[in-house]
Design goal:
Layout lengths: L1 H19 L11 H6 L2 H5 L8 H17 L1 H15 L6 E5 L3 H12 L2 E5 L9 E8 L2 E8 L8 E9 L3 H12 L3 E10 L14 E6 L2
Length: about 210
């Protein structure tokens, strides 16, 4: 159900952009709830309730996959992030494996920042620093190249969704350990019932869609 909603929501926004010249990226005051209200037919047709929570998690992952497969929806998603961050002096966009590698690079290119991949163990060559964390279905680890980020750089962390928040916390810890300033975390989807936002210790989080 989340998959159907995500596709319908984003495609409805794109259709309204074409038919009514709705400038999603041209109005910095256009927030996520105004975006949702601009697509009432997508909202009114679907329910967000999904149980159990693990089904919600993997359903949201599938939603992002289909967003990527739709050229128009993918472009609109990237454009909304770029509009938010183009004037925030971001110098590093840190993308979390794996879908952060898809959303992160176009955001980095458009904002003039460098892209830094945060990868699972044994994926990066050379010297790395590591951060272990607990996630929805076990334990994992993120790694980053030593020297990829310098002290004082302004970083944006990008992933497809936030569930329990463990992955985003690990990413922020990696960046802050080398002296970077994490400006914000950005995700396409949030699962607020899993309360991941509460684990971010007050760090700002920006999402395009909430799924309950």
């Amino acid at each position: 159900m989340v998959l159907i909603f995500m596709l319908s929501f984003l495609m409805e926004i794109r259709k309204r952009k074409k038919k009514k010249s709705l400038l999603l990226s041209g109005n910095p005051k256009l927030g996520k709830w105004e975006l949702l209200s601009s697509a009432p037919s997508a909202l009114s047709s679907f329910s967000f309730g999904i149980q159990p929570k693990v089904e919600s998690f993997f359903g949201a992952k599938a939603s992002c996959k289909n967003n990527i497969l739709s050229l128009g929806a993918f472009k609109d998603t990237v454009d909304m992030f770029v509009e938010r961050y183009k004037d925030k002096n971001i110098s590093v966009v840190a993308g979390i494996e794996a879908r952060g590698f898809i959303f992160g690079p176009p955001i980095a290119l458009a904002t003039g920042a460098k892209f830094v991949p945060l990868r699972k163990p044994k994926k990066l060559p050379g010297e790395v620093i590591s951060e272990e964390y607990i996630l929805e279905y076990g334990r994992d680890c993120l790694q980053m190249h030593v020297g990829a980020v310098k002290a004082g750089e302004r970083a944006l962390v990008v992933d497809d969704l936030i569930a329990t928040g463990g992955t985003l916390c690990a990413a922020m810890n990696l960046l802050e350990r080398v002296g970077a300033h994490v400006v914000e975390c950005a995700c396409v989807i949030e699962l607020p019932d899993l309360k991941g936002r509460e684990r971010l210790n007050g760090k700002p989080l920006y999402v395009l869609v909430e799924s309950h």
